[in-house]
């Protein structure tokens, strides 16, 4: 199964992707995690990305595509993947389509987690207290939500127009949201 998870910061993409990975037995590729690993390692790429991420802005499309090509060159992605945090703008959506075409891989679905903005702000504040991410400060959060509205929301329309969009209600317990996703993408896999 080849999936993209779409949703604003705080919509629960990362948490649901971790569960889906176990369930579908395919790797979870989080571009945020890949970038944070580069920052932690102090690599040249990490040094370039660090400030941009802390401000809540997008790291360059070229860096992201390079990272993604690298990740997709590993064998474990042949069985499928759950992509979380990419694409974040139309150019990235286009680049992903071309990459999969080049690799001869068929895309299954973009799953959009729908969550009202008030709830997002609340959830991110909770996560900031628990995890202490450098970009979970109020200013960066505002910026990330703005970037989402301006640049990432059009990606939803892109997948809708391609007939590849699955919309899932992201409000509820982790279990509830997980069940909704599974039912929407792989009803034959629902047990009980
Ligand atoms: P969240 O969705 O909670 O904001 P992520 O972990 O997905 O967090 O991303 C954190 C930051 O990493 C983003 O704000 C951005 O700076 C950078 N980033 C992640 N994915 C991308 C991407 N596809 N394109 C550009 N920048 C990205």
From TrEMBL:
> Record keywords: Cytoplasm included?
yes
Q: Which residues bind ATP?
A: 10-15, 127, 172
Which cellular components does GO assign to this protein? cytoplasm
Keyword Transferase carried by entry? yes
Gene3D superfamilies per the record? P-loop containing nucleotide triphosphate hydrolases
Enzyme Commission number(s): 2.7.4.3
A Pfam family (short name) is ADK
Annotated stretches, region: NMP: 30-59
GO biological process terms on file: AMP salvage
Q: Where in the cell is it found?
A: Cytoplasm
Keyword line: ATP-binding, Cytoplasm, Kinase, Nucleotide biosynthesis, Nucleotide-binding, Transferase
GO terms for MF:
AMP kinase activity; ATP binding
Pathway it belongs to?
A: Purine metabolism; AMP biosynthesis via salvage pathway; AMP from ADP: step 1/1
What reaction does this catalyse? AMP + ATP = 2 ADP
Q: How does it assemble?
A: Monomer.
Job description of the protein: Catalyzes the reversible transfer of the terminal phosphate group between ATP and AMP. Plays an important role in cellular energy homeostasis and in adenine nucleotide metabolism.
Q: Which family does it belong to?
A: Belongs to the adenylate kinase family.
Comment field on protein domains: Consists of three domains, a large central CORE domain and two small peripheral domains, NMPbind and LID, which undergo movements during catalysis. The LID domain closes over the site of phosphoryl transfer upon ATP binding. Assembling and dissambling the active center during each catalytic cycle provides an effective means to prevent ATP hydrolysis.
Name it: Adenylate kinase
Which organism does this record belong to? Pseudoxanthomonas helianthi
Organism placement in taxonomy = Bacteria, Pseudomonadati, Pseudomonadota, Gammaproteobacteria, Lysobacterales
């Amino acid at each position: 199964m080849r999936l993209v998870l779409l949703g604003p910061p705080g919509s629960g993409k990362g948490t649901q992707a971790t569960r889906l990975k176990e369930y579908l037995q395919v790797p979870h590729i989080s571009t945020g995690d890949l970038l944070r690993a580069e920052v932690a390692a102090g690599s040249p790429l990490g040094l370039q990305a660090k400030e941009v991420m802390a401000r809540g802005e997008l790291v360059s499309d070229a860096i992201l595509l390079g990272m993604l090509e690298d990740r997709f060159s590993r064998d474990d992605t042949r069985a499928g993947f759950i992509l979380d945090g990419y694409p974040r703008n139309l150019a990235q959506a286009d680049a992903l389509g071309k990459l999969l075409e080049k690799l001869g891989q068929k895309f299954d679905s973009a799953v959009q987690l729908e969550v009202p903005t008030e709830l997002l702000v609340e959830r991110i504040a909770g996560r900031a207290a628990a995890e202490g991410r450098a970009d979970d400060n109020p200013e960066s959060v505002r910026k990330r939500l703005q970037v989402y509205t301006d640049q990432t929301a059009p990606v939803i329309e892109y997948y809708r127009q391609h007939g590849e969009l699955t919309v899932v209600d992201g409000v509820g317990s982790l279990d509830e949201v997980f069940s909704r996703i599974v039912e929407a993408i792989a009803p034959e896999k629902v047990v009980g």
